[in-house]
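Second attempt. The first submission of AIF family member 3 had a stray character pasted in from the spreadsheet, which I only caught after the job came back as garbage. Lesson logged: always re-copy from the clean sequence file. Corrected sequence (576 aa) follows.
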Amino acid sequence: MAICFAVEVKVELTLLDKEKEVDLMSPNGKASPFSECRPNGSLGHCSDEDTMTLRPQRKHRDYIEASVCHVKDLENGQMREVDLGAGRALLIKENGEFFAMGHKCPHYGAPLVKGVLSKGHVRCPWHGACFNITTGDIEDFPGLDSLPTFQARVEKEKVIIRANKQALQTQRRSKAMSKCSAVINSSTGFSHILIIGSGPAGLVCAETLRQEGFTDRIVMCTMDKHLPYDRPKLSKVVSVDVKTRTVTFRDGFKMEYRKLFIATGSRPKPLSYKGKDVGNVFHLRTPEDANSIATLASSKNAVIVGTSFIGMEVAAALTDKAHSVSVIGIEAVPFRKALGEKVGKALMKLFESNRVKFYMLNEVWEMRGHNGQLKEVVLKSGKVLRADVCVIGIGSSPATAFLKQSGVHMDAKGFIPVNKIMQTNIDGVFAGGDVVTFPLALRSNKKVNIPHWQMAHVHGRVAALSMMGKASDIKTVPYFWTAMFGKSIRYAGYGDGFDDVVIQGDLDELKFVAFYTNEEVVAVASMNYDPIVSRVAEVFGSGKTIRKRDMFQILHCIIFPYRTGDMSWLIDKGSQ
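This time the job returned cleanly.
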């Protein structure tokens, strides 16, 4: 059976009772106009006065007010983290005005004062999420929550911030959700919007619909038994009939829809080898898989097949648990295709210094077991590795086989081409996440597939807005990150097909920035060089290109801290 969140086996995602505590105060102390909507899927806004009556009465002791600096202490384009006594806030000055908001990114808690301020938003230095400095709303992903905003005013040349104490502590804000007005009956075979898949694209699509005032029925179907978390999942769907707008599930249940969003993610590529019946061989797909791998690897021998980011992250995570960690790869250097040979070799040394043994230019021939459990991995070279648990991570393919007879167009690899509003070739059918190729503005609207967590969030939001007739193009800059042995790699752009890598810094010390270029810079990666990747993402996002000769100008902004925050000088260096 499919699972349709949130009741019984087929559970419905109504968000009926999702009434998280939210601070409805926008900056300048005004009430949010988006706190309630009219039923039947229509949009409506309350006036400030109406909203004030809805908000619980807040007592004076719930707030704190403090003078945080002199009015001349900040120049335009600068940010400062300030202490109010009950917590800290981010103070911003732009175009002569002061703004105050939460100082930590709600995604992973990055200090936003080390991020990038540009044209009314702050970009996180770690993973690239963007927040509007006026509303605190998240404008680019990853992450689901927005930031609280606080009243900032100037009195007698002093900047004064008035803030809610609870908001200072939580450092996050959930957008108000409209309630479902439809009659809830999980056996009803109709949904106004049907979402297939519960990964980030599906989750953000559902949340955006509710945030934007959609009040009719939303059903999310998945084979995963968990509520949406950080990995897309496959759905037990047999077929989609776009003519009758009906989806059929394996248990025979049929559901009609008005709008359909396909976000089924990817499935692991199979590995061919002898010994398929041997146990303790995993593809990392679920929390249960992760827990089993960690348990089985404890003080034992772990083998990782594949040098993808997931495979290498698993290898790094197991080094302090397993007796031994071995990695098998078909290329000479891990990460070569994505990060280039020089960066790949530097990272390989990092792994080797942490007890990881590589068997490159090699493949698996056989898994050997004892009493049904894995004991050895035999390579095609003849080498035999001791193994108690094996994780296979050799890539993935789109989970779209159920669409073959549907009329929804797919390319030769099984990806679903969509337009800039995430719609397929069929009216009313949208798709997003790992399963799609979409036009990337950064690369002259070339159709690309980017299976990143951040990009799936964007697809879900764009699709939801499109379903509501509020079409918004995909304008985000791809932003990727990975962490290994306490060190993070940040990456922005789309480097597929790069022909040169320009390295600045010290690869041996793992303090570097790498520019991936053709005739211009198409992507950038860094370690221990924050916030340069977020800064370059701002340039990409402005629609400008970076020539090779401008790369040293970009590094200049890191050398001189007084430049921090103001991106206008750098953006002007680019060209259309």
